[in-house]
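Internal tracking record. Fields below are filled automatically when a chain is submitted to the structure queue. Please do not edit lines marked as system-generated. If the sequence contains nonstandard residues, flag them in the REMARKS field before resubmitting.
Queue: standard
Priority: normal
Entity type: single polypeptide chain
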Amino acid sequence: MKCWIVDDEKNIVDYLFKTINWRKHGFQEVVSFTSSKEVLFRIEKGESPNLLLTDIRMPEVSGLDLAQRIDPLTKVVIISGYSDFTYAQQAIRYGVVDYLLKPVFPEELEELIEKIMPQLSIKKVLEDVDSKLFYLSLLSGNLPQEPDSLSYWQHLLNGGYVLKQARLDEERFLPFCLNEFEFGFVLEEYNRQCKEPIRELFDIIFQTDFKEPIQRHEWTKDLVQQQDWRSLLEQLDKLDVNSTSAQSIFLKLNILYHIYKHFPFLLQEFDVSQTIHLALADNLDRWLQNLLPLSNHLTQDAAINISSLQSYILENLDSPLSLEILADKVHIHPTYLSKIYKEKTGENLSQFILEQRLQKMKKLLLTTSLKIKTITELVGYQKPQNINDFFKKRFGHNPSDYRRIFKK
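SYSTEM-GENERATED OUTPUT FOLLOWS
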């Protein structure tokens, strides 16, 4: 989930950003802004968080204006130093869910977050979910290793949603089909906590359950990482690959989980339903057999789609784009990503990122009236001087002079 914190005083946004453990509450992305005009710019581009914490009185755009313009599914909390009843009335009219007075204490903010979590739109919470990773980690017992998927699972349970075979007339989230039946998370009238998710979900989806202790096969991860498909097949041959037992399905889901984690391109053509279907009968065995003639050892080069990586960079120029973050996106080592990118494009990855940021900065200077500090933040730099030097070297003028000379 995403949270935006907006206040024209930097010390306030820094305090709110650091005062609680946002990740603990399921917020994977928390962004702070000192320019409300930048926030409005993002809103007009169609961006929106799950939660917006904003001051009311700001010199560029007021918090109430932001509340009025943002996606109705976003929950808005006003944090202000003004105990003005008129403001409070307006805030309620614009759908603001709470109104806190400064100074805000950590326990007060924690209590607020806990209070509004059930109100967050499940539709908005799940809009960025990788449903394939979610189901593979859930059904293979690897949910604790996936913080984002674990957060989605907890939010669904806390909201009263359970995974079940769904009727066509029911609203369901994260749907998939298996053996001509449709499954999804459906809201139930009572909140039932799932104490043993693996056993219960296997009974729901595969009509089988664990009658004995769940066996975890650590070797699956090692063989997948080593790309030792032949040994994987040998291990599967020791089993009854046509077995419908829970242990057999569980083992194959573990293999699929690690394949998707380390070599996602191998499953990119499969949707959730098709991926889960590979765990049934001898489907995984036959699929792995098909990999052997292509290559006994797939190289990581195939995992890197340069155009997709560049598209991600262009869409996230305002966010951190370190080599480690990008390598994590394509599931390979940072050093290897740097090497392969240079081999395939002829330029360093860092050079590409800098050039795109400079081009975006130039465009915003010429087409908007945003402050230069705001523009530098929109291209991923919190300190203007860091990019201003690069800009002058690239275009021959500092940003202020460039705008004055070339903006018509």
